[in-house]
Amino acid sequence: MRRACSAVVLVLAVASGEASDVEILRSTGGLAADVVGLLREPAAFQRAPDGSYLVLDRRGHVVYRVRSSGTDAIKIVQIGPESGRIIGPSALVLAGSRFIVADGPGRRERVQLFDLDGTRVSGFWLPGRATPRITLGALTLSGVSSLQWTGRSILMNQPELGGLMTEFTLGGQPYHTFGAFRSTGHEADRDVHLALNSGLPLVDPAGGYYFVFQAGLPMFRKYDADGRLLFERHIEGPELDAMIQTLPTIWPRRQDETGRELPLILPTVRAAAVAPNGDLWVSLSVPYTYVYDRHGEKIRTIQFQAAGTVSPDSLFFDSRDRLLVTPGCYIFTVS
Predict the structure, then answer these.
(1) What CA–CA distances, in Å, run from 295 to 49, 106, 278, 316?
(2) Residue 137 burial by CB count (10 A; 0-12/13-18/19+): exposed, middle or buried?
(3) Res. 191: pLDDT tops 60
(4) pLDDT (tens digit per residue) in 245-284
(5) DSSP annotation string for 220-282
């Protein structure tokens, strides 16, 4: 297992005449180098209750299970469009002692539940074809890529259903949609309006939900357990000033496989997660991560360092003080 000295360094970021303290967090571990070398594009890195690690290799269309030592990776879900396999995967999330994977065979969105040995337990298809909302590099993200587990249901951002967040049963039935859309100024263009209301629904272990808008003006909302809005906050800081000042109002369009033209919208937020104490961590399209307390106040500005600066694609807390990050499958001590 890779080892590095734990270190937190404070530096000063200056932009637009303002300054903020930036903590440099250095990796304190991660998966073994030979395991990471197997991965073409690690998109999720989580730790199961038994101590083993699960890694979703998006480009390899594979789920690996890795021993608690960070060594000896075993393929437990293989590539393929058939039930029990995955192709075009976009998300993996732990569901107690099981895990859920979202993928998209033939541009149809599918959700499957697996045991930790890779045995398929159940699954369902979402109706229609996947509509890409946001483009991150070569990857196009749709609602199924926002998959979360509440402890009793599957939570996704499916704005086509009329709200920011929708809960699904394990059989795929939507039963609770909540969160009003924000105003975008593009209500007349449905594709742009829905894309700017796309984002990451998150379960707060302390109760309720967060929703982090992933494109357009960066902001987040907090909802209670019944889906009532508690507060809304803009995500601001000197590290973001230049990006916010140049946010587009017109987007280029591209044709999908059916010939339909869709806007090419880039994210302002790459990843987000909620810590066990209820703090919200938001990783931005610039290489910084902001941390907000349960009242919505920003309390930390962080930059991750490992082999170089890390811009997280996924964040997962396996304890109060340990954060698992892709790419690179690094572990950071964040207390």
Answers:
(1) 30, 42, 9, 21
(2) exposed
(3) yes
(4) 999 888 888 876 667 788 888 899 999 999 999 999 999 9
(5) EEEE-TTS-EEEEEE---GGGHHHHHT--SS--EEE-TTS-EEE---BSEEEEEE-TTS-EEE
